[in-house]
Amino acid sequence: MAVPHRSAGRRSFYLNVSRWAVAPSLVYVAIFFAAPIVVMIIVSFWQRVGGKLEAVWSFVNYEKLFKKSYLLEGWFNSIEVALITTVVSILVAYPLAYVLAYQVPKHWQKFALILCILPFWTSYLVRSYAWTIVLSETGIINTVLLSIGIIDDPMQIGYTRGATVLGFVHFFMMLLTLTIYSNLVQISKSYRLAGEDLGANKFQVFLRITLPLSLPGIAIGAFITFVIAIGDFITPMILGGGNEMLLPQAIMLQVQRANDFPMASAMSVLLMISVTIAYFLLARWLKMDRV
Amino acid sequence: MAFWRTLPGWVYLVLAFGFIFLPVAILVFFSFTSRDIPLPPFEGPSLRWYNKVLNNERLVDALINSVIVGVGSALVATTLGFLAAYSIARNTSRFDGLMRYAMMAPITVSYLIVGMGLLISLHIMGVPKTLWTLGAGHVIINLPLCFGIVFAALGEHQRNIERAAHDLGANDFQTLSRVTVPMLRPSLFAAFCISFTLSWDEFIIAFLLTRFEVTMPVMLFEMLRTGLNPEINAAGSIVFGISMTFVLLAILLNLRLRRKNA
Fold this sequence. Notes:
The complex is a heterodimer of chains A (291) and B (262).
Chain A: H1 8-20, H2 23-43, E1 47-49, E2 52-54, H3 60-67, H4 69-102, H5 106-117, H6 124-135, H7 140-148, H8 161-184, H9 189-197, H10 202-213, H11 215-231, H12 234-239, H13 247-258, H14 261-282
Antiparallel strand pairs in A: 1-2
Helix pairs in contact in A: 4-8, 4-11, 4-13, 8-11, 9-10, 11-14, 13-14
Chain B: H1 2-30, H2 48-55, H3 57-90, H4 96-104, H5 111-125, H6 131-153, H7 156-167, H8 172-201, H9 204-209, H10 216-224, H11 230-261
Helix pairs in contact in B: 1-11, 2-11, 3-6, 3-8, 3-10, 5-6, 6-8, 7-8, 8-11, 10-11
């Protein structure tokens, strides 16, 4: 007798089993991701009474958020730093991605790309610490500049907003180089050749063909940069030296010192709203489901 | 002529690579100093600070905790991510887009939010903070990546081989365990390596969700409060070395996989 053919009943059973294989993950995401965030949003409308969480519903935390100027300032500072970081990172990363995609020989590209995003995988804590060694008053940069004689006194570079942005740009230029590069290599060469045939010079070809076609790569990289930068506690903490308060630092203060979970929740909600706004601003070019 | 035209590009490339590698190079370089502070002038080389790290019991404990949480959360995330990717790739329903979006959702939220949500929920339910709670949080940040990596590797090519196995009489479980999983082994291992690295390096969730047993990044943060110290350089270099090993493994496997499929 030949091998019995699969019956229709077994076939549908198989389909059901593989259909349900997605369930554990969805349940996990619901329990450990979605539910905690919902809880956090609910708690942001509660209050802390006598050191304990109480389900007293009010907008008190949000009112405080907008009344206490240092909290609001922390939010503005965070948005400002994240925006500056995103823009500078794009400006630094784009030329690098361009050179990698169009100038480096094909068989070297993969190697060069792996090399240039390798430090991306170092702990960002360790990387921030390494920058403080480079930037400190008796650090590498000041030592070199002093010995060449460009400056007479050590510069204050560490523990400033500039240092925070530098640390961020170093991290995110690697990410953006990757997203922009993957976009640039997908653009068909014939588009650029057609542009040149029709009389455009190199600059016009770049401005009117290459750049617009690489916007999705910029957008996805910019979005991830903004999301991570605005929520990062470590880089401003270590490199900024606490000279100005950013939103994540303010949240951590509420958790650690004040032990005020409702207030910390309200501030976290503010952080989420900022990210959501960024998403909708970039949504035109973002294709999240293709990640 | 071509040389002069491409020169600015090459100069930029070299400068960018210099910028990218500067902090890592400085970190590792000054971990070999014999002075008490990781700043110029450099004296040495010496292994003094590595010796100190390996004799620091709390640091070694933190290192071990990091490995436990990293391996555990990476295993769970890879398994869940694989099952979800397999399920969505092999079935079609009108919820496919929605399910893929749900799987990728955690990636669009700051780690700080993921950590805060879990912290507050644990607090309300009265669950103590341990390595288990941290592991649960790390699975969430790794799940989207594992799902994405495996999903990208599940093409029509693999499906045809699975069909062939079925026609040759293999049952569903045999097909999955003897055909699909072995075929995907490089991607699964790459997903595992990337997950381990992310968990290994992760600070904010680890800081929020642990209490007595801490991981390496939290430990390093505590050490940073005392200022610049070559011991941190040495510990940081070890952390960096382990991350690099896993990332390079993932990259090599992925390259081999691509070559095989090409």
